[in-house]
Specification:
6-stranded antiparallel sheet; 3 helices; alpha+beta; 6 strands
Amino acid sequence: MRNELVTSLWSKCGQTVLVASIVGGLCIHPRTQFQAQTATQGQQEEKKESSEEVPKPPKDDFMVDVYKILDEKKSEKLTFKDKYKQDKTESDVDLIISYYNWAVGPDDYWNRQISIDTKNKEGFVIEKIVKSGFGELGFIKPGEKKTQDVFRKEKITQSGGVTTATMVDAEIGAAEKQRFQHLMQKFILKK
């Protein structure tokens, strides 16, 4: 009788293991299928993002020439001495030009940026220009409403015998565009 009980118990254990493996297989299979679908969707989304067209610069774009020279020189940060006119006075300044390249390909000139800090002899930034992508300073990418470019200048105010210097955004007009172009010509293109 005891042998029959042990045999019956082993038989039931075997059946339980068989049923558990089938049920477990059914539970795992949909989960695995869901994970595979999720991975496929993620790959498709990556392809969509990477297939988004990177804007192409117009022929003979000034900034493309600047970026090509900086790439050739493998330059990321350059420092130059220059003169800066402010309120009818001219002073010596340091220009720090920083170049950032996040391009996804060699012909991607949109995902690049140049930042120019003009520092006075005390080391304070008195002018900051940030140019993103190609086109002239202040270029607005098609489909957007404002430029990614920045032009800031030091503004000095006096109130109650106290002089305060603050950086303020300047509207990018002809003078700001000309200043940026002049700096690029003088220090990067050297024409």
